[in-house]
Design goal:
This protein has 343 residues and is of the alpha/beta class. The strands form five sheets. It has a four-stranded mixed sheet. A three-stranded mixed sheet has the order 2-7-5. The protein is built from ten helices and 13 strands. The chain is elongated. The protein has three domains: 25-149, no CATH class; 163-242, HSP40/DNAj peptide-binding domain (Sandwich), CATH 2.60.260; 248-342, Urease metallochaperone UreE, N-terminal domain (HSP40/DNAj peptide-binding domain, Sandwich). Residues 166-324 form the Chaperone DnaJ C-terminal domain. It comes from Ilex paraguariensis.
Length: 343
């Protein structure tokens, strides 16, 4: 019974692998002690030599005639030199040589490596030299290729002010907005030459009016306004304005047409001729009694729907009834007798 805890303890050691952990720890400790690792002793000697070299370099920076080297600086407890002056010098030199185009990750890495000391900085740099050289050259080649293939674009971030857009009205008839058309506008604008002179040039702007456009549609020509030194050229914008039409009134994609007919036709029925926006006419027979405000909808004879290709709105015919201005007593009596019996 007394051996049971001992066997359980050995079993736990085996499960946790503590034997392998102890062996790995002993191996790690032997590698970390300079007395047991010749490579660490060699690195320690190199570290001291680098410290002495930086001490001489730092003294020469403060005294170009060599007085600082002969006078010497107080030795640090490690047998090296005062790190503060050298580290500050390395930091200042590194900051002055850094380019604004360096990425944030590169800047952060350099700031973290400086406080570890000049000797450690050089040693770490020698270890990373092959990797960093490849990375830096690759970034340069990518930057160079990007600069050579991408045109320079000026924006407000460069301090250039873009002039306000020039707005102009473009009047179109209802027929032009229904079937589409091409508008050509001649403009004269100021242009800055390569030697800084301002000359006037004539430009022809072409606008393809699409079927279904309506009042308020905006067409923009970027950078086609006047040029002045130190600014970005303004845009030219054209705003569609629909001209007044003698027959039709537009309501969205629908067209409204007011048609007057005499009272007698409104009461007895008639056949009327309906004008269409394209200039054609269609015959429409009305058998119903037409009253003021009566509407007849003709499908597919309105304006094109830009978002629904091939479809058009409706033509809404509003009938206006013409009443007689005067009637004789006999006519009044006849109308009264007729309407009295029907109402």
């Amino acid at each position: 019974m007394a051996d049971h805890p001992r066997s359980s303890s050995q079993e736990f050691h085996s499960i946790l692998g503590l034997g392998a952990v102890c062996k790995a720890y002993k191996s790690f400790v032997s590698k970390c002690y300079p007395d047991k690792n010749s490579s660490l002793r060699k690195a320690e000697i190199e570290d001291k030599q680098i410290d002495e070299a930086y001490k001489a370099f730092n003294d020469r920076n403060h005294d170009e005639n060599g007085e600082g080297i002969r006078g010497g600086d107080p030795i640090s407890p490690r047998g090296g030199f005062k790190r503060r002056s050298v580290d500050n010098y390395i930091s200042s030199q590194h900051s002055s040589l850094s380019s604004p185009s360096v990425s944030r990750s590169g800047s952060r890495r350099n700031r973290e490596s400086t406080p570890t000391g000049a000797a450690n900085l050089l040693r770490n740099a020698s270890r990373r030299s092959s990797v960093d050289a490849t990375t830096f050259n690759g970034s340069l080649s990518r930057s160079a290729s990007r600069r050579s293939s991408t045109p320079i674009m000026y924006s407000n971030s460069n301090g250039l002010i873009k002039l306000p857009a020039i707005e102009m009205k473009l009047e179109c008839t209802l027929e032009e907005l229904c079937y589409g058309c091409i508008k050509k506008i001649n403009i004269i604008r100021d242009v800055v030459t390569n030697d800084g002179q301002i000359v006037q040039e004539e430009e022809v702007l072409t606008i393809k009016v699409k079927p279904g456009w309506r009042t308020g549609t905006i067409i923009t020509f970027e950078g086609m306004g006047n040029e002045t030194p130190g600014t970005l050229p303004a845009d030219i914008t054209f705003v569609i304005v629909e001209k007044w039409h003698p027959l039709f009134k537009r309501e969205g994609d629908d067209l409204e047409l007011a048609l007057e007919i005499p009272l007698v036709q409104a009461l007895t029925g008639c056949t009327v001729s309906i004008p269409l926006v394209g200039g054609e006419k269609m015959s429409l027979t009305m058998d119903d009694i037409l009253y003021p405000g009566y509407e007849k909808i003709i499908a597919g004879q309105g304006m094109p729907k830009p978002k629904e290709q091939g479809k058009r709105g409706n033509l809404v015919v509003k009938f206006l009834i013409e009443f007689p201005v005067e009637l004789t007593e006999e006519q009044r009596s006849e109308v009264f007798s007729i309407l009295q019996s029907s109402c």
